[in-house]
Design a protein that fits this description.
Length: 507
């Protein structure tokens, strides 16, 4: 067995999140793991590779708690769009993808994340009409080739969007009803068999690129399918991840379908536990947060997407108060348009402040930065090895350039990472002891070649999906009227008005 190589990082300033300080420190890396952290000039093996980190601020790699790699080829395609319109647009924005397209789309997102200081992601990938072991493997391979960590989760359902929203199908004309018939998903047993095959045959190192199971939205899944997903996750010891209470429409449908919140229904089925992650959770109520906190569950808070789709302002303080593990994510580029974790940290802070003037309940910058590192790591199931720069943890370290204008002057590193940094000061990125980005250049792939392939795919997919775009234009009128109408149904919580009763309720 080859002897692990040593790297010594000298002269940098190491972030202490809670102390709002960054004292100078040296870091000794053995293989892919941090072996020791000490004062400047600490001893190191003579054959150690030396990295000069003078004028660099070192912080743990950011961890994206929720994204969709298939969204990267749809970056910038949409503007005024609700979640329900986004789901309607799926065949137009994501249709006709080849295996190479799936790999390419994941590669684009991984490249952007790493260049912007993100070293791991929870990726919920969509394939129609059901997941394929080949598609999942291609996405996993894309992350491996870029040099990043990931948990890849097939996003699955057995009911189409039009079947999942009570009353919606009845609003469609007979012609449109016939058109949406082709959106019908595979029977759930077929999807379960495909996921089982993928989990069984997974060839990538699960410690770096693992798998999970993602019943996409609870009411898009029959209870039998949700229970089958739970069994699958337990059989293979992997996580469960679902979009829960993302929009007001979802919250209303939960009560219509189950007579309870979506999370209460999932909990009654046994899905909520320490390996369970809620994506978004904008419309979780206090009882939901308590359920999650008591059972060790997580929420990936995606503030940029929540605002972009008009879903509201999630209550991160309420989650933390109930001991929910909170991570931070970007969501997919089709509805967030970038994969910038710095932006989402800043937005997480701002959203908390936008909920009302009770400043003592606003989340702090250290809570936000810990959510984007330690919190997301735990949601990914990697909490014991990434998310911190500490002895025994993997050497996933971001080096920020302190000569960049973002850091002039250098006042408070924790506040400035959350409120000032936008990714433009990222100088280098180390993942597992290996430099993946150096002097703002991604070392693992050719960006010009990536751009060329992306443009060829964009042109081909644009032509192939033209009929789906025309169908979307017709469906937009119905969905864009019916769903906002449904969202006017009063609930006892309101995510637009700082926790007051909903506008509809007040009248």
């Amino acid at each position: 067995m080859a002897k692990a190589t040593h790297t010594i990082i000298r002269g940098g300033r190491l972030l202490d999140i809670r102390a709002h300080a960054a004292p100078k420190a040296d870091i000794l890396v053995k293989g892919d793991t941090i072996a020791a952290i000490g004062r400047p000039g600490m001893p190191a093996p003579q054959d150690a590779t030396v990295i000069d980190a003078r004028d660099r601020l070192m912080h743990p790699g950011l961890i994206n708690g929720h994204t969709h790699s298939h969204g990267n080829l749809a970056k910038g395609m949409l503007d005024r769009i609700t979640l329900e319109l986004l789901l309607t647009a799926g065949p137009w924005t994501n249709g006709n993808r080849t295996l190479e397209d799936k790999y390419l789309s994941a590669t684009i997102g991984a490249a952007e994340m790493v260049l912007k200081g993100c070293t791991a992601a929870y990726d919920l990938i969509g394939e129609f009409p059901m997941p394929s072991p080949e598609g999942l493997a291609a996405v996993g391979q894309a992350y491996r080739d870029v040099g990043m960590r990931a948990v890849v989760a097939p996003m699955v359902a057995d009911l189409s969007f039009f079947e999942a929203i009570p009353g919606l199908i009845d609003r469609l004309s007979p012609g449109l009803r016939q058109d949406v018939e082709r959106f019908r998903l595979a029977p759930y047993k077929s999807s379960v068999a495909a996921m089982r095959k993928a989990l069984k045959g997974w060839k990538l190192d699960r410690h770096d690129i693992g798998m999970a199971v993602a019943p996409t939205i609870p009411h898009h899944c029959s209870d039998d399918f949700l229970l089958a997903c739970l069994k699958l996750a337990r059989d293979f010891g992997v996580g469960l991840h679902s979009h829960v209470a993302e929009s007001k429409v979802q919250a209303v449908v939960g009560y219509q379908r189950y007579g309870s919140t979506l999370l209460a229904h999932m909990d009654a089925l046994g899905l909520v536990g320490p390996d369970f992650t809620v994506a978004h959770g904008v419309w979780l109520d206090d009882d939901d947060n308590k359920r999650l906190g008591d059972k060790g569950g997580s929420v990936s808070h995606n503030p940029g997407s929540n605002m972009r789709l008009g879903n509201g302002l999630a209550d991160m303080r309420g989650m933390l108060d109930r001991k929910v593990n909170v991570g931070i994510g970007t969501d997919g580029a089709s509805c967030s348009d970038n994969q910038n974790m710095y932006e989402n940290m800043r937005l997480a802070s701002m959203v908390s402040k936008s909920r009302g003037p009770d400043w003592q309940r606003w989340v702090t910058t250290d809570e936000v930065l810990e959510a984007a590192t330690v919190g997301s790591a735990r949601a990914l199931g990697f909490g014991d090895k990434i998310g911190r720069v500490a002895e025994g943890y993997k050497a996933d370290i971001v080096f920020l350039d302190l000569h960049h204008v973002n850091w002039i002057p250098f006042n408070d590193p924790t506040n400035q990472i959350v409120h000032t940094e936008d990714g433009s000061a990222v100088h280098s990125v180390m993942i597992g002891g290996r430099i993946v980005v150096e002097n703002r250049r991604l070392l693992t792939l050719d960006m010009a070649e990536l751009a060329r392939k992306a443009e060829a795919a964009r042109a081909r997919l644009s032509a192939a999906n033209k009929p789906s775009k025309l169908l979307y234009d017709r469906l937009e009128k119905v969905v864009g009227t019916f769903c906002p109408g449904l969202a006017k149904t009063p609930l006892h919580i309101d995510r637009f008005g700082g926790g007051q009763h909903s506008h509809a309720h007040r009248h």
